[in-house]
Amino acid sequence: MIKKGIGRQIVMHYFIVVFVTLFMVELIFSLAIRMYYYDTIYNHMSNHTTWASDYFQKFVKLNADNDPHYFTEMLDAFELKDTELLILNRKGNVKASSNPFQDEKAIQTSDVLQAASGSVGKWIGRQPSTGEMVMAVSSPLQVRGENAYIVRYVTSLEAVNSKMMNLTLLSSAVCVAVLALVTLFSIGLANSIVKPINNIRAVSAQLAKGKFDTRIEGEYRYELGELASTLNYMAQEIVRSNQIKDDFISSISHELRTPLTGIKGWSETLTSGGFDPDETKIGMNIISKETDRLIGLVEEMLDFSKLQQNEMKLVIGRVKLQELLKEIMLNVWAKAEKKQIQIKLDDQMDKPITVIGDANRLKQVFLNLVDNAIKFSHENSWIHLVINPISAEQVQIEVVDSGIGISEENLSRVRDRFFQVNHQGGGTGLGLAISQQLVELHHGKMDIRSELGAGTTVSVTLPMPIHDPENRDEEVEQMNSEDQN
């Protein structure tokens, strides 16, 4: 007995479909066999009655009712093997019969009534005297164009019905055998489906308990194979995410501890007193710098949280791209100067470029990209900011550096949250993830190309406003509306 579940459902569905199909086939087969045998018997008897009606003209005799030998001669002439022959008058009374035990009552079956009206009639039913199933075929015999007598052939259907019953039982046995084979096949099919499902379910239960090193073993085909691969991939990603989370916690703990240690140390030192104004000023500057660093870390995590929860709101307006990039260059100038890195704006346009977006968020994106380029560039190297219009509706900004580059293995993961190529470089590992999402909020695209030891190029594609001044405000309102939704 198959236990309750999807396996039983598969077997039951197969069983019901095949059972109904075989039942319909058996029913149609039985009706076809019955029609074939009955029609064959009827056609044989009907043809003989037609012949008898035509041949009867040789026996036409006036006042035949007064000649007892007349009907006997008709019986001898019209007899048909394995049938009972009756000669009736128009009222159904028996004038002569090949059966000596024939009841003398008038016969009023449908075949006699049809013959009396001038057509060949057929009747199937039980013989009143014997109770057996018979078929009767009657045809009129005409004298001078009028129906004078009726010739009626009656044959038993018991032998035919017995043969049809045997054929029906044989076909039913075949159907039962087919149904049994299909049931066994469906059980095997159900097991082939249910077994991997149970395996996948067991592994899923282990994953739900936190055993993320569990994997689905075996090669499954089609959708089950895809499901198994998806669950294995999910487990792998969970393990990776947990590792990234652990690395992030370790990194952020270090990032928070460093400025807090500096703030605490200088606060206690300054509190003890006895320092000259210059030393006090140095301590206060360190406290202010580390505080800004803490604020930056907290804001970065808050921004990421807002992006994950789709709560980031943009203040959309027209942003002058060249001015934005020049402002960023001024912001990072001091940091670049320490490493003797030259930052250059390579503008391919002869006129100012305007994009539609949030100036502060776009500044955050490019500031992060340039800051990363400085962080991972060698001393005495260069960084280029390239503005390149790629169509009338889009502009591409590239941040190109000649730094250490990114390996092919890390390049596909560098935009993942909490991922850091170099854990010693500091940071939360959220910068590129936030930048990616901010660019997408501006209906743009960010691509990264890099070669280890040769440098990195980050391309940001942003939409440009329609040149028709009358439509610019409408475009700003549309982006604001999309952002709110």
TrEMBL record:
Principal subcellular localization: membrane
Membrane topology, as annotated: Multi-pass membrane protein
InterPro entries: HAMP_dom, HATPase_C_sf, HATPase_dom, His_kinase_dom, HisK_dim/P_dom, HisK_dim/P_sf, Sig_transdc_His_kin-like_C
Pfam families in alphabetical order: HAMP (PF00672), HATPase_c (PF02518), HisKA (PF00512)
Catalytic reaction(s) noted: ATP + protein L-histidine = ADP + protein N-phospho-L-histidine
A GO CC term attached to the entry: plasma membrane
Parts of the chain that traverse the membrane: 12-37, 169-194
Keywords: ATP-binding, Cell membrane, Kinase, Membrane, Nucleotide-binding, Phosphoprotein, Transferase, Transmembrane, Transmembrane helix, Two-component regulatory system
Subcellular location: Cell membrane; Membrane raft
Single GO MF descriptor: ATP binding
Enzyme Commission code(s) on record: 2.7.13.3
Residue ranges, annotated region (Disordered): 465-485
PROSITE patterns given in the database record: HAMP (PS50885), HIS_KIN (PS50109)
Domain Histidine kinase: 251-466
SUPFAM superfamilies hit by this protein: ATPase domain of HSP90 chaperone/DNA topoisomerase II/histidine kinase, HAMP domain-like, Homodimeric domain of signal transducing histidine kinase
Enzyme class: transferase
Residue stretches making up the HAMP domain: 191-243
PANTHER family from the UniProt entry: OSMOSENSING HISTIDINE PROTEIN KINASE SLN1, TWO-COMPONENT HISTIDINE PROTEIN KINASE
Protein name in the entry: histidine kinase
Source organism: Paenibacillus lutimineralis
